[in-house]
Amino acid sequence: MRGKSHAAHPSSLPAGRFDGDARQTRERLLALDRRSGLRERNQETGDNTPWADALEEMQDGLAKTEVLAARELLLGRLKALSRAEEKVREGTYGGCDLCGKPIPAGRLKALPEAIHCVPCVERLEEQRKTEARPILWMAKAQLATE
User: Residue 102's beta-bridge partner residues?
Assistant: First the structure.
C-alpha cells in the first residue's frame, strides 16, 4: 500500500545521502569482487598430503559461500537505496510500502533506506525463514548425493 499521507517532511529527507550510500555500497561490491580471487581449479598449492585436495575444495566452497552471501547483502542494500530514493521522488518517503503506516523517525535516521515499518519487516523475515527451509533441505540432500 503506497499512500502519500505518511510522507516524511521534506526538511527531514536525507538529501544526497542515498547517492553517497549507493556509491559506497557499489565500491564495496567492486572491492569484494576484486578480493574474492578464489583459487582456480587445479592450481598448485604445494601440499601433497592425501587429504589436501579435499580440504582445499572445502575451503574453496566455504570462501565462495561467504563471497556470495556478502554480494547478496550488498546488492540488497543497493536495491533498498534505490527504492527509498524512488519514494522520495514519489513523495511517499517515510511511509511503509506494505501497510502504509508511518515509519518512525528514529528508524529512518538510523536506516535512511528503510521502506518498511518494524512489524512488517518482522513478518517479511518470518516468511523468508519459512520459505528458505525447503530450499535448505533440498540443498543438503543434493550435497549428500554428490
Answer: 95
